[in-house]
Specification:
By secondary structure, this protein is an all-alpha fold. It has one domain. Helix content is 72%, strand content 0%.
């Protein structure tokens, strides 16, 4: 099972401040927004993650963070789709 967004975010923040991490991602993100991601209060949108990956000012680590978050979201969406499909198949039986 893939890591969650908070787990991934905590891993990449490490011992740096939330403000410093927000600056490394290369988009206009606040320390508070990073806190929401780290605590699981919100999930960065797929567009936000793509913006980080495409930003000329985001660090290599920030791009790796975004890539891992995208992979996590894709895995989660796949599981949710499979759960929904399984429920629908069971309903039709």
């Amino acid at each position: 099972m893939s890591q969650t967004i908070p787990e991934i975010t905590q891993k990449y923040i490490g011992d740096q401040s939330l403000e410093k991490f927000a600056k490394t991602i290369g988009i206009d993100a606040s320390r508070q927004m990073v806190w929401y991601w780290k605590e699981g209060k919100q999930v960065p949108s797929i567009m936000t993650l793509f913006r980080v990956m495409g930003s000329a000012t985001s660090t290599t680590e920030a791009k790796a963070w975004a890539r891992e978050c995208i992979n996590s979201l894709q895995a989660q969406a796949g599981m949710e789709f499979e759960d929904t499909l399984d429920k629908e198949v069971e309903r039709r039986r």
